[in-house]
Amino acid sequence: QPGTPCAQLRDTGCSIYDTRPENPCRRFRCAWLHFPDSYPEALRPDLSGAIVLWDRYWQGWQVLRAVPTGEKIPPETFEWVREFAKSNALPLLFVERTVLDEGYSADNLFALGSPAFAEAVRQGFSDDDLFGMASPHS
Question: Cβ(67)–Cβ(95) under 8 Å?
Fold first, then answer.
């Protein structure tokens, strides 16, 4: 469930790591796992407060997507991701969460990128855009 930690998550990591299911657990590859030479250790999701996805597409655009592990991406992590997206000419889509009563409430999607991308974003997102961004590996 988006915005809800996995039931198998413990302080030491995944409690079923050796027997975790193929989908989504074994197939999922965040940018930190996929490009260890490009993403520093500090960008590891459990250290950075964000999961960065490099292989997402939105309306024909390849985008860098960042999702917080809490309500918001920590400022130092966000700055690194923003600079990475800019230096690689990738539009950036990121989320901030609204949490009420210690439960998942809603995600607010934000975008940074070229003027053409900004115009596409101004055209609006459907409800499916937030969690339905395609991955070529899905």
Answer: yes
